Amino acid sequence: MKLVTILMLTALPLYCYAGIGCDLMDNVVKMTIDSNVDVNTYIDNLKEFLPGEETQEAFKFMKECFLDQSEETLEKIKVLQQSIYSSVWCARY
């Protein structure tokens, strides 16, 4: 799970570097980390970005992994997210 989290969060600067969707990506990450958002609500909010059933199942699995984490771990993920956003690579976006 931690490897998935690290890979997902390290992809953010590259996504921002492309100059598109940083706010959108930020909202998706916040929804993913938020333990108050259940799997069905999460999938409903992302429906337009999920091209097929396999992608939808992968996103369900990822959200369930985050729901299984403690609040302490989720807080640390938020700190990591802010560190990435404050990095040299994302600072200009």
Write the topology of this structure:
Blueprint: H1 2-17, H2 22-33, H3 39-46, H4 53-67, H5 71-85, H6 88-91
GO cellular component, one term: extracellular space
Organism: Desmodus rotundus
Protein name: Secretoglobin-Dr1
Overview of the structural elements:
Keywords: Secreted, Signal. With 93 residues, this protein is mainly α. It has one domain. Helix content is 75%, strand content 0%. It has six helices and no strands. Helix 1 packs parallel to helix 5 (71-85) and helix 3 (39-46) crosses helix 4 (53-67). The protein is globular.
Describe this structure in a few short sentences:
By secondary structure, the protein is mostly helical. It has six helices and no strands.
Mean pLDDT: 80
**How many extended strands?**
0
Overall, the morphology is globular
Strand content: under 5%
Order of helices and strands: HHHHHH
Q: Helical residue percent? A: over 70%
Strand count, sense and closure of the main sheet? Answer: none
Parts with pLDDT < 50 across at least 5 consecutive residues: none
Count of discrete domains: 1
Protein name: Secretoglobin-Dr1
Signal peptide: 1-18
Pfam families: Uteroglobin
Subcellular location: Secreted
